[in-house]
Write a structure and sequence with these properties.
ten-stranded mixed β-sheet
Amino acid sequence: MTTDVVPSPTTFAGIPMAPVRATRANMNMLIYGKPGVGKTFLAASSDLVPEMRPVMYLNIEGGDMTLRHAAPNIKKIPQDGSLTWDQLEAVYDALARQCYNGPKPGEFVPRTVVLDTLTELQKMNMVYIMSALVEAEPEKYDVDVHDIRRWGKNGEQLRKWVRRSRDLPLNVIMCAHEIEEKDNMTGLISHKPQLSGKLSNEVAGFFDIVTYLYVKSEERQGKQVPVRKLLTGHLEGYVAKDRSGALPLVIEDPTMQTIYKHVTEGISKKTAAA
């Protein structure tokens, strides 16, 4: 007696679907910390990982001195200066087209996208919003004076951009500065990405990996030296997480090669065991 094998459906409601183990594992990650601790250096080191290349660096803050040291061959956009909001939207549209409809002949096709920084992106978007209002009604609005309604629009546009960029089938790495907030009731100081209002916690929730980069002075061979460390899991007062479950709680002298190896090997082991 033969038994008919019913093929597994590949769509539902007309939408393609597949077991998670059969889909490509891409890494999405947020790195935050004080200015100068090495966020840009760490993110740019993705260009030194063969499996993550080619890398596109979306320059929001301007300046490229750190990039010249970390990854001199990384592809930076724009060539000079920093991106405008309209340019950033055009970059997303082109990336989405490549991912879902295929690239054009001869077009640069990144495997990893780095955005530096979300903190500056929020400020840039607010200027974009206010500039449009000032242009339409210069006697009514001031580009430097923001009301609740504009902050609401600003927050929604940032959420939308981060979510849809994170969902692209690419490695996506974003950086942010750090903000410290003191709880007046407990006295506890919390460390989180520097974004306005609820965005600090909400945006962190969008990523699979949220890390806090810091520098600590430690004794090495009888001398006090600064050591870079990366917190990858939640500790009281710090926003951090690792949904891959593959990263050590603290990584000393982190590089993207170390992070990528931990994450991909961890995912491979879990997939093989499933």
